[in-house]
Amino acid sequence: MSARTAPVLLALLLALAGCGPRFVRPGAGPAVDPAPWVRALEEYNRGPRQLRLAGVFRSGAWGRARFGAAVAEGAGVRVDAVAGPFGTTAFVLACRDDRCRVYVPSERRAVELDTGGAWLARVLLGRVPTMGPARAAWRTPDGGTVLLLGGPGGWTQEVEWGPEGRRPRRARFVRQGRVEAEISWEGRVAGVRFWYPARIGLKLREPSADYEMELTRVAPADGLEPDLFVLRLPPGVTVERAEGTEGWKPSRVPLLHRMPPG
User: Fold this and answer.
1) What is the largest CA-CA distance in the chain?
2) Of the given ranges (9-18, 54-63, 87-96, 210-219), which has the lowest mean pLDDT?
3) Rounded to an integer, what distance in angstroms lies between the CA atom of residue 104 and that of residue 96?
4) Residue 162: enclosing H or E segment and its boundaries?
5) Nearest CA-CA partner of 18 in 172, 181, 204, 184
6) Sign of the CA dihedral running 220, 195, 183, 159
7) 78 burial class (0-12, 13-18, 19+ CB within 10 angstroms)?
8) C-alpha to C-alpha distance for 3 and 247, rounded to whole angstroms
9) What confidence category does residue 4 fall into, taking pLDDT thresholds of 50, 70 and 90?
């Protein structure tokens, strides 16, 4: 892992160059009342406020790492990832509120990010980050439903349910008719009293990225200590601002940097 890729890896906010992801949009069918789907989305997003997670993070650009994470809504996120047969620490990420710090031990360097913590917390809680109010809804040819949300600066968001209509399966972020990013949810983690997706995917058009988190263990975690979300670095570690590194490639999607309320 090179120094210039450090900020990319860790916050799911930046991206490594690679093959462009493929985005698929279902066709639009007849309009339906959006109100029931707004309520369904609100209900879906009422999950636990604090969790501990374990799983595998994959990216075609740099491979695979096992991770453990703790997340508390409104407080912070902590992710510790290891790679290789001996479980060598690949990176540690800690976000308090919206601000994050990433540490890569092999390079003795850390990167500061001013935004992204609130958005990342929402994703790790298994929820759908939302851009704004509902504008419309329609059926898809396969019997599913799409709820259209308005966003800032001409952005829109499409939250898609499958034909079974039980839970969202994708959220696409669109500008000028083109999908720029997509989050997807598949399966369910076994042995958990509440529903949590077994796989969470993230695709970005520019800069190109395709990530997947496969969750193997999810558990409620009441009483997470605030100190958990403060990353203390060993002496002599170089700390950089993400915006000042050669690897800084901010996404065009505003949601991926600072999540609006909602």
Assistant:
1) 61
2) 9-18
3) 18
4) none
5) 204
6) negative
7) buried
8) 8
9) very low
Quote the strand ranges of 84-153, DSSP E.
88-96, 99-104, 109-113, 134-139, 145-150
What's the distance, Cα to Cα, between the start and end of the chain in Å?
A: 36
- Cis-peptide into 207, omega within 30 deg: yes
| Domains of the chain, earliest start first | 19-246 (2.50.20.10)
- Please, is 80 exposed, middle or buried when counting C-beta atoms within 10 Å of its C-beta (0-12, 13-18, 19+)? middle
User: CB atoms < 10 A from the CB of 39, how many?
Assistant: 10
In this model, does residue 6 exceed pLDDT 50?
no
Which two three-digit tokens encode residue 229?
Answer: 């979300």
**Two tokens at 16?**
């490594």
pLDDT band at 35 (very low <50, low <70, confident <90, very high): very high
What's the CA dihedral at 221, 226, 230, 235 to 10 degrees?
-110
Amino acid at 215: L
35: part of which helix (H) or strand (E)?
helix 35-44
pLDDT mean across residues, the chain: 84
Poorest-pLDDT segment among 18-32, 52-66, 114-128, 199-213: 18-32
The most confident of 72-81, 114-123, 244-253, by mean pLDDT: 72-81
Cβ neighbour number for residue 117 with a 10 Å cutoff: 27
Buried b (16+ CB within 10 A) or exposed e, 176-189: eeebbbbbbbeebb
Give the pTM: 0.84
106: number of Cβ within 10 Å: 12
Task: Check residue 257 and give its pLDDT.
Answer: 41
